[in-house]
Predict the structure.
Amino acid sequence: MTLAVIFDMDGTLFQTNKILELSLEDTFNYLRKQNKWDTVTPINTYREIMGAPLPIVWETLLPNHSLDVRKETDTYFLHSLIENIQYGKGALYSNAKETFEFLKENDYEIYIASNGLIKYLKAIVNYYHLDDWVTETFSIEQINTLNKSDLVQFIIKNYKITNGAVVGDRLSDILAAKNNGLLSIGCNFDFAREDELDQADFVIDDLLQITSILVK
């Protein structure tokens, strides 16, 4: 039997809110300099769709812009995010590493499944040395459907996982657990929504609470 916990990254392990506004403002300042944007930065709109794959993000934030402009914006935004991570402006949520330690001691394999891009996830993993605990980090880029449920299914098949949980802050994480026969643990953190968390098997306010749910 292979036991596993599959974590989301943004808003679950990594406090994306600490760098989100910085990078988004930087990106839209870039667009302003290019005369491609002339109003306020749509930070509130982004918060509403936080956790969505980036192609959907730019379709939402730049609905009247060309695909080329969206791709250019995506590239700039990714670069800004990675810089802010490497400058130490982000942070993990409290007790993330302590939770990892506990799970490893109790024979759980740890994975990350995120809608973030590969380079972005690698920057976080490297900066916080998450590879010390995490078996592998997966990006939505690895799945043609851009669907979190399919990404979790890919991990389950790849590692022959028979039991465990998906931990995340948004509905896509909860559904990814339910659609794959795993326990769903919702994180009541920065970007979480009550109506989405209501669908989780368990809701936590601190990552360390996972240990009392999974290890009896």
User: Anything to note?
Assistant: The two ends are 17 Å apart (CA to CA). The CA atoms of residues 106 and 216 lie 10 Å apart.
